[in-house]
């Protein structure tokens, strides 16, 4: 019996009912079939072992597709884990975080990866890839999965599995290697031939083709300040026994989460106070520039920093970059003809710098106010004059770009980068995406304070991410200091706000697969029902409400 399939962007075909996506990809793409790592069928992602039983639209996913890219990164992670397990069977392997265009991974703290180790691991990985072992996805009853994890010494996976309410667990089997992954893997190990390991003591960077490195695995740029922030956060979570979600869930389920909330929030306040002290001690600093990607908590952080600066006797004045937008008629246009509000060229840099110079020289300045209804800049009537105890806080997307305040000497500036750089991972082999954390935050905020459902947020998200890649991330190493706004407990709070909304997204919608991915991710976290311990000045309050600061 035949069924009709539409191979999106290619052609229509009649194929035998029950044919697998893998066989179909071989028929269509010939010797190039291993470029395609998975498929999207009617807005749902599938492994290539999926059989076709009805008329469907099929989009095969390569590494240039966001979901295909995820499959590639997870599959190369599996190959790395297998290689390390074969070479160092008594060591624990951890996939830690993205750094630039690669994944940072390591073994136990007691076993730093030497340069000779790197050569051996990479060679073993190439052997595993050449062997082209089949990757099977098998569903097991929870008790059987627990038995497999216990037998393989996966203590943190076991801890997570025992803390969640799931009857069945999907486990990947590759010959004698068993592992669990949040997401999908390729059909075999031979799909990930392009990779390279870079020495990054005490671990390694796994490099592979990606948009970030223009699909050139030799194009890696170190981000030492970001790496230091990740390591500091990881060390702190280790002290609290909160490196993985299983340990967090135990504390939630045992009624100990209030202590974790208080400790986490106190840690944030301590870091903010330390930054304020650094600024106070540097008598040359007149301007504090704050930047970070969407939903990193910039507004709350700026206000908390101002409070701590006031404790030190400084009375900062905040300037919004939004008020220095060019009149809409003069806004640069994107290639599609729409206004480009993300580019630094949309800001009147000349006026901004002139006002900053006049303020620093003790003159009166009337700050502008941008009218978003008329699209024009207006006089605000707010006259400001500064003295040595009135530093300026500038918060916005371009806060770290040297062009923003090019008239002001560097010695007079203090630059801060803020983002939700989570180091809490699901387990040692499943990292949590910092981008997903920010997306979930933004969905909750947009629904509560801007009247937008998750679909609207998802529609805008690609453009937001493109702006971040272009205007924020290239300058993050310009920062004098970085602030990690992630809160180890926040997913346990945010999930109840967003899961009901995500479940309303229909299968017919192009964002259905993204909604399902986020729902499955959030289901790993136990619910935090009681939220009165979350202080009103918490960064989380910027998204869930109840903030003591005026934010919107």
TrEMBL record:
Keywords: Ligase. The keyword Iron-sulfur does not apply. InterPro entries: P-loop_NTPase, PRK/URK, Thr/Ala-tRNA-synth_IIc_edit. GO terms for molecular function: ATP binding; kinase activity; threonine-tRNA ligase activity. SUPFAM superfamilies: P-loop containing nucleoside triphosphate hydrolases, ThrRS/AlaRS common domain. Residues 287-485 form the Phosphoribulokinase/uridine kinase domain. It comes from the Bacteria. The keyword Zinc-finger does not apply. Its EC number is 6.1.1.3. This is Threonine--tRNA ligase. It comes from Tissierella creatinophila DSM 6911. The gene is thrS.
